[in-house]
Amino acid sequence: MEALIPIINKLQDVFNTVGADSLQLPQIVVVGSQSAGKSSVLESLVGRSFLPRGTGIVTRRPLVLQLVYTTSEDNQHRSAETGTLDLEEWAQFLHIKDKVFTDFTEVRKEIERETSRVAGDNKGICSEPIRLKIYSDKVVNLTVVDLPGLTKVPVGDQPEDIELQIRDLLLYYISNPNSIILAVSSANMDMATSESLKMAKEVDPDGRRTLAVITKLDLMDAGTDAIDILCGRVIPVKLGIIGVVNRSQQDIIDSKSIKEALADEAAFLQRRYPTLANRNGTPYLAKTLNRLLMHHIRDCLPELKTRVTMMMSQFQSLLSSYGDDVQDKAQTLLQIITKFNAAYCQTIEGTARNIETTELCGGARICYIFHETFGRTLDCIHPLAGLTQMDILTAIRNATGPRPALFVPEVSFELLVKRQIRRLEEPSLRCVELVHEEMQRIIQFCGTEVQQEMLRFPKLHEKIVDVVTQLLRRRLPPTNDMVENLVAIELAYINTKHPDFQSNASLVSSLLGEEEKARSIPVRRSHGNAPSTYEQEIREQSKTQSLQNIQRYVGDQPLPRPMALEGHPSQPTSKDQANTQNWFSSLIAGPRAEHTEPSKEQSHENSPNMTPTHQLLAVSAYEAFTNPSEGVEAEKLPQLPPPPAEGGILSPQKPVNLLPEVPMQQSRKLTERETKDCEVIERLIKSYFYIVRKSIQDKVPKAVMHFLVNHVKDNLQSELVKHLYRTDEIDTFLSESPEIAQRRKEAAEMLKALQHANVIIGEIRETHMW
Question: Which residue ranges does the record assign to the Dynamin-type G domain (predicted)?
C-alpha cells in the first residue's frame, strides 16, 4: 500500500507537464489563516527549513510539495546523469527540471524568486502553482499543497478584493472531492472563530476528509490547556485533531534545527499532555497523513481508472476530428473536395449518417417547399379571384364588337382565363427562390467531418462556399426561364379539347343549345307578305326592348317632350306614342332645364342644335322610326330651304350629336340572359384553371429538380476541382488555422499523458491496495 502515493506522484508529474487539471488526483491541501503556522508544519514534516518565513503574508503562490521516500539503495529515483547517486536528500523544481538542489537555503531563494517573478515584489498573490519535489530517507510519501493564508485587510499593492481572491483560490483546491483538507488553527485563538474549519465545513459538511491541526500549543495563556480541543469536545472532527509545537520566530533567528525542535516538542507534550502525547506531535501527524492519503487513494483509484479511460476516448476522438498533419497537400485537397461533394449530395438525398432531428434540412426541406409551401400557395389561388360578374359581362360585350351576340363569344373566355393563369407565375418563381436558398443553406450543414475540415482550413472553406454559391447563382436564371416558359406555354394555347375540359365544355354547349331552342319560335305569316298579328307583337316587343335599352344608357333623368316645330305639330295618338316621343325628343333637345322654360321663340333662336334644318330632319327621322310600316312619302317630307346667299351661314357652331355619352360601368341587376352568360364563362374558367394549376403544380417541381438541384449535384465535384485544384494555390488553401493547430497539439499532448497515466495505473496490483 506504500506504493500508492508514489504512483499518484507519478500521475501528478505526468499531468503537470501538460498543465491539465481535469483529472482530480488525491492530495493533501493545507488551509489556515495567515501566520497560523502552516509553513512550519510542512517544514516539520520534511525535517528541513526550506520555506520563506517572516511576518505578514509570505506564501503568495500555491506550493505543490511532493515528499518521496528514497533509500541509498534505491536506483529508481537516483541516477548518475543527475548526480543523485550518493545524495541523502535533494530537491527539484518542475520549472527547472535539470537542476538539482542540495542546499535547502537555495530552495527557499528559488521559491522567493519564482513568486516575485509571477506575483510581483510586493504583497500580490497568484493562482499559478510552484511544483517542488523533495527526495529523502527522513520523510514519508506525501503530496501536500501549501496555500496562501486567509486575510481580511489588503496591504501593500494588494487589491481591495484580496480576501475574495484568496478565498476563491482555497475553494478551488479544497473543492476537489479527492483531496484531504488539513485545517490549521492556532491554539491561542478560539476554535469557534477558526476560518479554516469554517471553509472546510462548506465543502465537506460530513467531515469525512477533514483533519484539524492545532499549532502553537506552547503559546496558550497560563492556566489554560487544549485538552478539550484535542479530544474533540469543543468542535468534533471525524478524522481527528492533532496538536503540534512549532519553532518560534526567535528559534528561526537562532537557526534552531528541525531535529532539535522535534525533540523539544516531544518533551513539551510529555510534560503538559502526558496522556495525549502519543497521539500528537509532528511524527504522529506525518504518519497519520500518510495513512489517510493511502486509504484515500485506495478509495479513489477505481473511479480514477474509469476517468482516465473515458478521457482517453474523448481526446482520441477530438484529435481525430482535428485531422493529421498534412503530408501530401494535393491528395488532401482532393479528399476534402470528395468529402464535401459526398456530404452535400447525401444531405440532399437524405442518406447522410448524421440525421438532423431538430429541424428539416436538405432534401426533406426541398420536398416540404414543393408539396407544402408551393402546393398550398397554389391551392389558395381562387380561379375567379379579382373577377366580378360585371368584369365578365364587359369582356363578353367587348369581344362581340359592334355585332350583338347570339352566343357567348369564345374570345372572352380565352382573355379571362389567361388573365387568371398569369397569377400562377409569381408563386412558381418564389418556389425556385426558396429551393435556391435551401441549397445555399446546405453548405453550412453537410456533415460534421466536413465541418471540422472547414474549420481547420478557413481559406479553403471560403473558396468552397464561393464556388458553390457561384454555381447556384448561374443555375438560377435558366431555372426561372423554364418556370416562366411553363406558364407562357399554358398562355400560348388554350386547349379547349383537353380531355379533362371537354366534359364541362360539352355540358355548357348542351345547356346553351336547349336555351336557344326554347327561344327560336317559327314566325308565320297570314297571307302573302303581310306580317301576321303575332309577328307584329314580336316586333313591338323588340321595339319596346330597344327603347328600354336606350333609356338605360340615358340614365334616370326624366325625358322631356319634343319641342313643337312650326308647321309640323306633334300630336300623340296614344300613351305609348307619347312616351316614344319623349324619348326621341330627349335625344334631340337634351334634358329640360329645371328653371322656368323660355318662350318658344327664344328657344328656337338660342338653341345651337335646333336650327330649322335640324328640326325638320329630326321630325322626319322620328316619324320614320315610330311608323316604320308606313312609308314616308317624298312630298310629305319638309322642303329644305334654299342655300343662303354668298357669305351666309349654313350650319350652327357644332354638328348635331344624336347619341348620349358612353356610359360608365355601374352596378346593376343583370338580366336573366346576362346572368346565364356569366355563369357559363365562370364555369369554363374554373374548369380550365384547375387543369392548368394541376399541370403547373406538377411541372414546376420537376423543372426545379432538373435545372437546379440535379444539375448542381451532377456538376458540383467537377466545379470544385476546376476552381480549387490549382498547383499555385494549394499551399494557400491548405494553410491551417493557428487555433486548430494549437488545439491539435494540446490534444495530442493530453492524449499521450493519459496513455502514460493508464500504464501507471495498470501497474497497481490488487495486493498493493491492501
Answer: 22-302
Q: Answer whether 280's CB lies under 8 Å from 244's CB.
A: yes
Q: Computed from CA positions of residues 311, 314, 317, 321, in that sequence, does the dihedral angle turn out positive or negative?
A: negative
- Going through 84-178 in order, the beta strands assigned E by DSSP cover 90-93, 130-136, 142-146
The dihedral region occupied by 422, where left means phi > 0, alpha psi between -120 and 50, and beta the remainder, is: alpha
Rounded CA-CA distance 183/187 in Å is: 13
d(Cα 191, Cα 220) in Å, to the nearest integer? 13
Q: Which residue do the cell numbers 501549501 mark?
A: 146
Give 602-631 pLDDT, tens digit per residue: 444 444 444 444 444 444 444 544 454 444
pLDDT of residue 489: 93
Could you give the CA distance from residue 234 to residue 25 in angstroms, rounded to a whole number? Answer: 32
How far is it, in rounded angstroms, from Cα 291 to Cα 5?
Answer: 10
SS3 label, residue 637: coil
Q: Are 460 and 733 a contacting pair, CB within 8 Å?
A: yes
| Helix intervals (H) in 120-194 | 162-174
H or E element in which residue 673 lies: helix 672-704
CA 583 remoteness from chain centre: 75
**Helical ranges in 493-611 per DSSP H:** 499-519, 533-554, 575-589, 600-606
Report the DSSP beta bridge partners of residue 64. 131, 145
pTM: 0.52
Widest distance between CA atoms in the chain: 171
pLDDT confidence of residue 519: 52
Q: Which three cell numbers stand for residue 284?
A: 504522529
CA–CA dist 700, 267 (Å, integer): 102
pLDDT tens-digit map of 303-312: 888 888 888 8
